[in-house]
Amino acid sequence: MTRLDEQCVSPHVGMAQHGHLRLDWRKPYRTPERVRPVAWTCACRATVYELCQGGGRAFLRRTVQLDGGHLVNETPRWPINEARVIWMALLAGRAR
């Protein structure tokens, strides 16, 4: 379940639930269409997730904030409505 702290304006990802969906995280690849984040989690955590869309498709981006930089991975592209369902599952801890 997502929650908002007094100082945080973006949602936090819920704890992973038993039997959660395991997402296929891959190295980012260049896409010919413009892609923009439309939703994101709070940056107060070491791992930040974004729901990105462009060209009629959507995907999740995961950024792990490290001392020496950032590690970025993305899921495959899905139809926008399917990606929104997976985004909600991620926030609820039913996907990771």
Structure description:
The chain has 96 residues and is an alpha+beta fold. The chain has one domain. It is 14% helix and 32% strand. The protein has one helix and five strands. The chain has one helix at residues 80-92, and strands at residues 36-40, 47-54, 57-66, 69-74, 78-79. Strands 1, 2, 3, 4 and 5 form a five-stranded antiparallel sheet that branches. The two termini are 13 Å apart.
Taken from the alpha-carbon principal axes, the silhouette is globular
Succession of helices and strands = EEEEEH
SS-based class: alpha+beta
Distance between the amino and carboxyl termini: 13 Å
Number of domains: 1
Return Rg in Å.
Answer: 13 Å
List low-pLDDT spans: none
Helix content: 10-25%
Number of helices: 1
Quick tags:
alpha+beta, 1 helix, 96 residues, 5-stranded antiparallel sheet, 14% helix
Could you outline the blueprint of secondary structure elements for this entry?
Elements: E1 36-40, E2 47-54, E3 57-66, E4 69-74, E5 78-79, H1 80-92
Antiparallel strand pairs: 1-2, 2-3, 3-4, 3-5
Overview in brief:
The protein is an alpha+beta fold and 96 residues long. It has one helix at residues 80-92, and strands at 36-40, 47-54, 57-66, 69-74, 78-79.
